[in-house]
């Protein structure tokens, strides 16, 4: 298994919102209302460049299973055609 091993990043890398404009703005908006989110640091990893852009993450979310789903659809249709499973007639004719 001669590949590179995965190195777990240090947790301290994702423990501060400093330098992340979106989270700093959120913190300011909450402070205006007298609120504070103690768990905001849990969102820091989402803004790290190593995790991709919002568009890339959305594309992964919505299309991750698309190739497998398409393949299974084609196989299902082919099997139905092969065994003559075309019993979807227009019942209005009868």
Automatic annotation (TrEMBL):
GO terms for biological process, alphabetical: electron transport chain; mitochondrial respiratory chain complex I assembly
Domain of life where this protein originates: Eukaryota
Membrane topology, from the record: Single-pass membrane protein
Transmembrane segments: 61-79
Any one GO CC term of the record: mitochondrial inner membrane
Protein keywords: Electron transport, Membrane, Mitochondrion, Mitochondrion inner membrane, Respiratory chain, Transmembrane, Transmembrane helix, Transport
Cell compartment(s), UniProt: Mitochondrion inner membrane
The family this protein is said to belong to: Belongs to the complex I NDUFB3 subunit family.
Job description of the protein: Accessory subunit of the mitochondrial membrane respiratory chain NADH dehydrogenase (Complex I), that is believed not to be involved in catalysis. Complex I functions in the transfer of electrons from NADH to the respiratory chain. The immediate electron acceptor for the enzyme is believed to be ubiquinone.
Protein name: NADH dehydrogenase [ubiquinone] 1 beta subcomplex subunit 3
Organism: Leptosia nina
């Amino acid at each position: 298994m001669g590949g590179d091993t995965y190195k777990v990043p240090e947790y301290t890398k994702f423990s501060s919102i400093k330098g992340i404009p979106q989270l700093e703005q959120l913190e300011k908006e909450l402070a205006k209302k007298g609120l504070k989110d103690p768990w905001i640091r849990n969102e820091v990893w989402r803004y790290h460049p190593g995790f991709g852009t919002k568009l890339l993450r959305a594309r992964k979310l919505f299309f991750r299973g698309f190739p497998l789903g398409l393949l299974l659809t084609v196989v299902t249709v082919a099997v139905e055609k092969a065994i003559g499973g075309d019993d979807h007639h227009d019942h209005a004719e009868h």
